Amino acid sequence: MTASAWTEDRTGRLKTLWLEGRSAAQIARDLGDGVTRSAVLGKVHRLGLSVGRPGRRASIIARPSSPRACRAQPDVPAAAAGGAGRAPEHGQATLLSVRRCQCRWPFGDPKAEDFSLCGRPVARGAFCGPHAAIAYRPVRQTPESLETLAGLV
Q1: Burial class, 96, CB count within 10 angstroms (exposed 0-12 / middle 13-18 / buried 19+)
Q2: What's the pLDDT tens digit per position in 74-97?
Q3: In which band, very low, low, confident or very high, does the pLDDT at 122 lie, cut at 50, 70 and 90?
Q4: Is residue 114 within 8 Å of 108, Cβ to Cβ?
Q5: Does residue 105 surpass a pLDDT of 90?
Q6: How far apart are CA 121 and CA 127, in angstroms?
Q7: Which end of the chain lies in a sparser environment, N or C, as judged by fewer CB atoms within 10 Å?
Q8: Three-state secondary structure string covering 43-78
Q9: Which is more confident, 68 or 18?
Q10: Is the dihedral angle over the CA atoms 95, 127, 92, 111 positive or is it negative?
């Protein structure tokens, strides 16, 4: 039987470094002697240190659990939208700050410094209610268009 690489000293050092916010790879390099990143992560898990670790990135904690976690938001009242059913005249988000559940309606020239995106809560597709009303227009079906679609004309 092989002796464990996890002595009391190494385990104590692992706990200290982990609670300082070091990555598993950094800890593995610090401990040396063949301790791998995976071995560090396994030990951290067995010790229960991964729960409530200080210094975790908020983006990891706040990540939705599934790709469909974003739900459509009801339309913002007309007063908040800048009038009866109108959309805002400038954006609240940038290409770098817009999130999954925010409207991506563009404002201005994409090459300009003041280019922005709407940023309001999504109501349909990738847009807020007022912008979805502009972007998604119903197709008017006439008898002639249906015949063309069916290949009869």
Answers
A1: exposed
A2: 544 444 444 445 566 778 888 888
A3: very high
A4: yes
A5: yes
A6: 8
A7: N
A8: HHHHHCCCCCCCCCCHHHHCCCCCCCCCCCCCCCCC
A9: 18
A10: positive
Name the DSSP class of 91: -
Please report how many Cα atoms fall inside a 13 Å half-sphere around the Cα of residue 130, on the Cβ side.
Answer: 18
Structure tokens at 12: 């104590």
Joined together, the tokens standing for residue 42 give 């396994």
CA atoms within 13 A on the CB side of 38: 1
Two structure tokens written together for 79: 């007063």
pTM score of the predicted model: 0.42
Q: Are 72 and 124 in contact (CB under 8 A)?
A: yes
Residue with tokens 């959309």: 87
Q: CA separation (Å) from 37 to 8, 13, 82, 92? A: 18, 15, 53, 41
Among candidate residues 105, 133, 134, the one with its CA nearest the CA of residue 120? 105
Two structure tokens written together for 92: 């609240």
Say which DSSP state 116 is in: E
- Rounded-to-integer distance, Cα 9 and Cα 22, Å: 17
